[in-house]
Amino acid sequence: MKKEASLLQAVIVLGGFLAMAFACNQFGIEIHLAIFAAWFLAMALGKFNGHSYSDMEKSITGGIYDGMSAILILLAVGALVGTWISGGIVPSLIYYGLNVIHPAVFLPAALILCGITSLATGTSWGTVGTAGIAMMGIGSAMGVPAPVTAGAVLSGAYFGDKLSPLSDSCVLSAAMADIDVIDHVRGIMPVSLTAFAITGIAFTIFGLSIGESSADLTQVEYVMNALAENFNISLFAFIPMIIVIILLILRLPSLPVITFGSVLGIIWGIAFQGLHPVTAISTAWTQLEMNTGVNFIDSLLGRGGMESMLWSAAIIILGLGFGGLLDRIGIIKAIADRLYGFINNGGTLTVFTIIVGFLGCLLGSAMYVSLVLTPKIMAARYDGMGYSRRVLSRNAEIGGTLTAGMIPWSDNGIYMSAILGVAAFEYLPYMWLSFTCIIIAVIFGFTGWFMWDNSNDVRMSSKNSPNAEMEI
Where in the numbering of this chain does the Na+/H+ antiporter NhaC-like C-terminal domain appear (predicted)? Predict the structure, then answer.
């Protein structure tokens, strides 16, 4: 006879999982193994409570089945980023951004440039590793404190990442909340746009207070020259980005639109960068390697391709399976029942969701851990109170993604600190977009603004095929 999981059992399973995740992070072991090992910890509990192995295995494959569209889109995104870099699209975007930077407006310019780059590519990591590196060098030449520059870079990178349907965290948040990725973008847009405007004003005022540096723009010219020497910079590079954005706005299916964008990247690589057709096509799978002696260019050229997304795809597969298993053996219900007693309105619902998301990053050492667990734990409460899953995915991502870079031992914290050369605790006070998003989301929760009901929700799991498109 099957028994319901108790709160103690839930704590043991999740505590064991989080402990393994923390240990993996400390010893440099991939987080994937912690999630995979947690499958068997959860199955041991399920077996103890009377669940059959067959049922638990079906729950794992069922969870993965429901999220397969996210995996397909993620691979297409990898191809897009790879071909857009080698095709000169992303380099041109950065080049023209650098062309308009002036010391007096450097901080808001860094915010906007990183925001646009991240929005176009769908990756905060890639943005920080490319445009972000350039901004750190430029800021240093202009006499801007490194932690302040890092704050502007991260604010822009996370802003674009959260609004881009190309983002892996965006896709994962939508998949775990069981909604369309564009519905997720629509849900988070009011918070992100408002926060971006406030953050932009704050960095503008702060930048003016620092004053114009007497330093010349040698660093800016150095980066621009390096880009121009290694790419054929052209305004035509904006055409593929404009086409893809328009097609997405027209609500065409994500997978073919993104794939078409990568085809345009291949064409641009052949036509404007002089790549051999075979080489241009191969960048859809793995990016070109180049040793120019210029770190910025080498970093820029080394990113993208489907191969670069296999890490994220694997963790999404494992996470989806773990979520399905936790749901089957009653772990989600046991935790949710305890939390739900403290939630009586949209404001407390938002606060607890963000807290759960933050704790997932804090204890699990990875953004993906939070994005997997938070929607699973909180979904039933949103449904019961009549709120749209768009609100759930928004709050889960704010709690799980925008706080990840604040934690020194998380995947984001480690990466951002290493790339920018600034410790997490040093740039933390300047992550103004993250703090502003949290405050605005809580305000929306208590006021009821943009807290949609679930009358028009369309669940992705209702699709008939695992290959079904995310309709936009």
Answer: 156-449
